[in-house]
Specification:
- This protein is α/β, with parallel strands linked by helices.
- It has one domain.
- Helices cover 40% and strands 30% of the residues.
- It has four helices and seven strands, in the order ββββαββαβαα.
- A hairpin with a 3-residue loop joins strand 5 and strand 6.
- Helix 2 runs antiparallel to helix 3.
Length: 220
């Protein structure tokens, strides 16, 4: 099993309030921030590749993988992308920024199961390897499902810990927005690192000598 995680992608949109500029005599007030946080998981069904001879699959897996006798391989690329909508209200030389909503997608768009060409579909030998690699797939599915609500709660906590929104000078708008985003980005990255560590730990529990002996003996 080989697991990879790519760099995360961040998009920020400004949501400007359709408000008339206040008169100079009226102080700018910022609305209370009650952002909606949504996390979704989108994991593609793995494609099955039965075209590679054993040496080619071993090269793909790594020389040391499965003791140099790789018969099957599960590979997945995990990405996280999130879009933050930032509210905006401007006054006379002042501005307000607040987080309006955050949508986070944990995606696994590139998943594959490889089975060496020498084990043909419809045979016990093929099915035994496929069943083993499906265990890796199911482990990923379980970890992703568990971490989605955990990530949602972590982001919500990070937002709740932000100071009350207050006006800043217009020239400080970019810095104010960055101060809003920094704790959120840190929460996302921290949870994604934890997700990756949990994936590796659980996947390692599958690839054991006992499991390899079971697969090898499954068809006599």
């Amino acid at each position: 099993m080989t697991a990879r995680r790519s760099a995360s992608f961040l998009a920020v949109a400004l949501a400007a309030g359709a408000l008339a500029a206040p008169s100079p005599a009226r102080a700018l007030t910022c609305p209370a921030s009650r952002p909606a946080v949504q996390v979704s998981v989108k994991a593609a069904e793995p494609a099955i590749d039965n075209t590679l001879p054993q040496p080619a699959l071993q090269k793909l897996a790594g020389k040391a993988y499965h003791g140099g006798r790789t018969l099957g391989l599960y590979r997945a690329t995990i990405r996280a992308r999130w879009h933050t909508r930032v509210g905006q209200r401007d006054g006379d030389g002042e501005t307000c920024r607040w987080i309006d909503s955050i949508a986070i997608d944990i995606v696994a768009p590139e998943r594959a199961i490889f089975i060496i060409r020498e084990r043909r579909p419809g045979t016990c030998w093929y099915d035994s390897v496929l069943a083993h690699e499906r265990k890796h797939q199911a482990t990923d599915d379980a970890v992703l499902a568990e971490f989605a609500p955990r990530l949602e709660h972590a982001v919500a906590r990070a937002i709740a810990g932000l100071p009350e929104t207050a006006p800043v000078a217009s020239a400080e708008a970019a810095a104010a927005q960055q101060r809003l985003m920094a704790p959120v980005e840190e929460a996302v990255r921290r949870e994604l690192d934890a997700l990756e560590a949990e994936r590796r730990a659980r996947q390692a529990l599958i690839d054991t000598p006992r499991e390899y002996r079971r697969v090898g003996a499954a068809c006599g």
